[in-house]
Amino acid sequence: MKTTSMERTFICIPNVGESGYPRLYSGARELRKQSDFVPESEPYTVCSVHPLTPLIGAVVEGVDLREVDDAVHAELHRALLEWKVLFFRDQLLDGPEHIALARRWGNIEVNDFFPNGDVQAISRLAKGPKSIGQENMWHSDTSFRRDPSKVSILRAIDVPATGGDTMWADMAAAYDNLPGSVKEQIDGLKAIHTFTKSWGLTMAPEQVAAIAEIHPPIAHPVVRTHPETGRKLLYVNEPFTTEIVGLPRNEGDELLDYLMFQARVPEYQVRFRWEPGSVAIWDNQATQHYAINDYYPQRRVMERVTVAGDQPF
Ligand code: SIN
Does the N terminus or the C terminus of the chain have fewer Cβ atoms within 10 A? Predict the structure, then answer.
């Protein structure tokens, strides 16, 4: 099958599996960052922003995250919308400063699953021989909530000598590159998200029941719109999305499988190597991420604060 789009030409190799969706195709991908949609994009003046790929992820220098005033926050937020995930080195944040930084973006979310760090509302992800990292699935944080997180801030406390990187994928690019026929097919569809597909499997039944009272299964649009940039974003993910509403199960599962596969396309991704004191801030509405678990049984300790978002539309 051959698909053309303006000057770009793809060679699509039909799936080897049962599904009719072509997963494999070579050729240039359509990679437009947010600033491509802004008529005149101003330079950054308060901090320096160094992109890691043409599309997603930038290292920010010249900022002490303990002292983010309005001018710095405005620039960081613009860079976040443009690059979707920002990386910082050698930061000296403690727990309360981590929370104060996150509050710049809105109300803090309390995570019902991860044990808290020193301060309520910090999720401590402490991995080692007895507590194995499970976040090596492409996902968007807390998509099982009615109002999933809009921004997540992760701080490295203790990292293995090698390994334990995290990857992020740009879900606007994932949407942009879908074939037109698939875009038409998914327009207006909703999918069910629930924690019981993943985190729930590791919990006692009474705990699952208690959390399900707070977070029952919820239907979100398969394609959500970014509340600030207006970009269309593919919004289904492996650990939390279970089915597409209104489609026969087989048909829906094939489509879901194909859509979830899109986060795995390398052109949409960035990969970050952690050091103690590194911090990542990501736009959780526009991205998915994957914590690589190649360091077991070494220790890897991270702390995360998430900021409450709005109901996807
Ligand atoms: C997460 O899934 O939010 C954690 C990512 C990581 O530990 O790198």
Answer: C
Residue 186, domain extent = 48-308
Closest Cα to atom 6, ligand 1: which residue?
291
**CA–CA distances in Å: residue 26 to residues 1, 41, 133:** 12, 31, 33
Contact 156, 92 (CB under 8 A): no
List pLDDT tens digits, range 154-209.
999 999 999 999 999 999 999 999 999 999 999 999 999 999 888 888 888 998 89
Q: 240-261 pLDDT, tens per residue?
A: 999 999 999 999 999 999 999 9
Domain contains 5: no
Total domains in the fold of the chain: 1
Residue 165 CA: nearest ligand 1 atom is 8
Token reading at 69: 């005033």
Q: Residues enclosing ligand 1, CB less than 6 A?
A: 125, 135, 141, 152, 154, 166, 289, 291, 302, 304
Q: Residue 268 domain-assigned?
A: yes
Nearest ligand 1 atom to the CA of 274 is 8
